[in-house]
């Protein structure tokens, strides 16, 4: 049986598909979405424009973008009955658990979502996901604060609407700071897609059984939550806080990370594909300095991050294993500066990655890819006869 099967744990050397969406070069530290570099897009584009590019393959004309944005702005409301599901969560529920549950519940509120949908029906489900994720995401934050949830405001752009729903209170008008909105746009662009990473592969695998798009995206949210994947951005800040509380002794944590028996990893370091600096980390590191200066914030955790990065980049253990800061290493420092709480960091990653998941799910379905069903090498018990319970020792 093992004649023709090769096992590749973690699919480190397995290509699962052909895709025209995102190009990574791990050695050169290159990341392009539909041929455009993330350096260009992060500087010159908006998150919603990049979402359009990833999903439909081209940068939108003014008319196309206006229609796309109008569709999204007019679908941001969530069915009021979803509030009842939401109200059932405990106040300390992790926002990723709430998000994956409510996105999965969308398949119950839109039961027409299925494999036979026309392109127009699928387009409507795509708009609903893009439009409603920020609304759902902000609910869990407001509940955790004991504050009333906010409704989306159609006159606001995507990022401003999210920030308003997060931070607006009935007692005071909330004015979106353009520095904050611009930083959020840039962060979401940098998280928008990343070829066949763990959560995207999950979305494609679930979608390959012709499960509906809501269930497929919900499975991606669950995969992203893991601390080795999107959950790392929360782990990084908690690690940096621990180092700060520990007197800023970065070398102690570097030594722990080098000692396998400690079970400790430097979160925000290392990557399956990038064996050089993650190009997103390079942009985010610069943006972190920029945003904190503009907002007049002096966050001691940034200094610890820079000290940790410098020490690791000079340490043979990390150099030999080509462990560099990844997208999660500095992103939390910016989210914190924007007022976003630590347990919402991975939710921010999900909001950013949503257009990538959608684009990859759509490509898998349009290309009529077969159901994903890998094989195995069996290592269990040889064939044996059944033993009645009375005779078992
Ligand atoms: C994301 O895939 C993507 O594209 C993901 C992502 C995306 O946009 O979708 O880029 C987003 O998930 C970024 C990664 C966030 N995760 C973390 O920051 C968690 C910490 N990093 C690691 O757990 C690890 O680096 C991974 C999970 C990112 C990659 O793991 P691999 O490719 O399976 O590498 P590995 O675990 O086999 O490690 C190789 C070696 C091992 O040592 P040896 O067995 O060779 O002696 O490097 C060591 C590991 O022990 N190592 C680390 C380490 N990461 C790897 N040692 C200390 N600290 C680390 N962070």
TrEMBL record:
<dbReference type="Pfam" id="PF00285">
    <property type="entry name" value="Citrate_synt"/>
</dbReference>
<dbReference type="InterPro" id="IPR036969">
    <property type="entry name" value="Citrate_synthase_sf"/>
</dbReference>
<dbReference type="InterPro" id="IPR019810">
    <property type="entry name" value="Citrate_synthase_AS"/>
</dbReference>
<dbReference type="InterPro" id="IPR010953">
    <property type="entry name" value="Citrate_synthase_typ-I"/>
</dbReference>
<dbReference type="InterPro" id="IPR024176">
    <property type="entry name" value="Citrate_synthase_bac-typ"/>
</dbReference>
<dbReference type="GO" id="GO:0036440">
    <property type="term" value="F:citrate synthase activity"/>
</dbReference>
<dbReference type="InterPro" id="IPR016142">
    <property type="entry name" value="Citrate_synth-like_lrg_a-sub"/>
</dbReference>
<dbReference type="InterPro" id="IPR016143">
    <property type="entry name" value="Citrate_synth-like_sm_a-sub"/>
</dbReference>
<comment type="similarity">
    <text>Belongs to the citrate synthase family.</text>
</comment>
<keyword id="KW-0816">Tricarboxylic acid cycle</keyword>
<comment type="pathway">
    <text>Carbohydrate metabolism; tricarboxylic acid cycle; isocitrate from oxaloacetate: step 1/2.</text>
</comment>
<keyword id="KW-0012">Acyltransferase</keyword>
<dbReference type="InterPro" id="IPR002020">
    <property type="entry name" value="Citrate_synthase"/>
</dbReference>
<protein>
    <recommendedName>
        <fullName>Citrate synthase</fullName>
    </recommendedName>
</protein>
<keyword id="KW-0808">Transferase</keyword>
